[in-house]
Amino acid sequence: MPVASGSPSTYKLSFDSAREAHWHAVKPTETPRNPRFSSGPCSKRPGWNAAGLELDALGRSHRSALGKVILRSACERTAKMLGLPEGYRVGIVPASDTGAFEMAMWSLLGERPVDVFYWESFGKGWKADIEQQLKLDNARFFEAPYGQLPDLSQADPDHDIVFTWNGTTSGVRVPDGDWISPDRGGLTLCDATSAVFAQDLPWERLDVVTYSWQKVLGGEAAHGVLILSPRAVARLERYSPPWPMPKIFRLTKNGALNEGIFKGATINTPSMLCVADYHDALDWVESLGGVPAARSRCDANLAVIERFVDDTPWIDFLATTPAIRSNTSVCLSVDLPAEGVKAMVALLAEEGVALDIGAYRDAPPGLRIWCGATVEAADLEALMPWLGWAYETIKESH
């Protein structure tokens, strides 16, 4: 399959001079079998084939008996595989992780003061919604630059807490949940889209968790998963926010939780093709040995890059502290000017060995390599020499 380079015309001169400098660097001969290292949508699982999907529900109503069984099964399988505590509910909602988290904020916040912790683009977006859209006047904001965490000990257990578990655009994750009080009065709202199935989450300390199956599972995009604790359900049933609530955000009916959402009766029409793909991804995780095995694959993938960084002076992790380093969205800084990093990314794409590995647009210039469970460690091993070749090639051209 031909690979589009996507390199902007402004880098044509960099490429021309880079080609002339190839003799200065040894070009690798082994290439990754799968060059897809995008941080979302992420690579499909190894061996994925559309022909293997169960497609009996296509062309049928999602509210048919079959459609409801398939949707409810997706919720129940998720709860079982993640080991959710008794009483936690799983629902499929519109608009990916963004839709799920917006739904949670708009439905639950406002009863108590809220502490917002953010250190990358998506957390900053939740902060902006709380400040500019919901306009809560009892919110506190705790920020850290890319590559670092804010002081989580500042969390007030009587406040609601909003945070991202794994910062996809910064490569920084929360190391544990010890900073969250088990006796808290407020709710914890956790955006965990690139952490679920990849990192150990303390479910008993999390009241709302959202994710999109297009991340660690490599599923198709557009749908979000919303997980609610009994404490979050109690909040929904006793508290009505003062602002208008769009239909796709409404989790209650006549003051009670709309239980149908968590039993396969979705708010709007889902793609049953995407749901079939989700079941396929869950089958694959089960075949590995469950969530612990998926986490181990992520850790092994991160270890490949850690070994390379340890041996290479011109590259480092954006998260320099190992304990907060993501094992999925691995963000790296490179000893090149911004235009050189872009040229390096484009050169690797042109060679067909690494697609979509540039840093997020709001993040510092660098590389972002997805290391989720659907990525093979062997492909990362093959990629590392190419990073060295591309760096030396671009460096020679500047």
Roughly what fraction of the amino acids lie in strands? 5-15%
Please give the largest β-sheet: 7 strands, mixed
Strands, total number: 14
The CATH superfamily of the largest domain turns out to be Type I PLP-dependent aspartate aminotransferase-like (Major domain)
CATH top level label of the largest domain: Alpha Beta
Sum up the structure in keywords.
alpha/beta; three-stranded antiparallel beta sheet; single chain; disordered N terminus; 14% strand; 398 residues; Aspartate Aminotransferase, domain 2; Aspartate Aminotransferase, domain 1
Task: Give an account of the 3D structure.
The protein is α/β, with parallel strands linked by helices and 398 residues long. It has nine helices and 14 strands. The chain folds into two domains: 147 residues, Aspartate Aminotransferase, domain 1 (Alpha-Beta Complex), CATH 3.90.1150; 237 residues, Aspartate Aminotransferase, domain 2, CATH 3.40.640.10. The strands form four sheets. The protein has a seven-stranded mixed beta sheet, sandwiched between helices. It has a three-stranded antiparallel beta sheet with strand order 12-13-14, covered by helices on one side. The two termini are 31 Å apart.
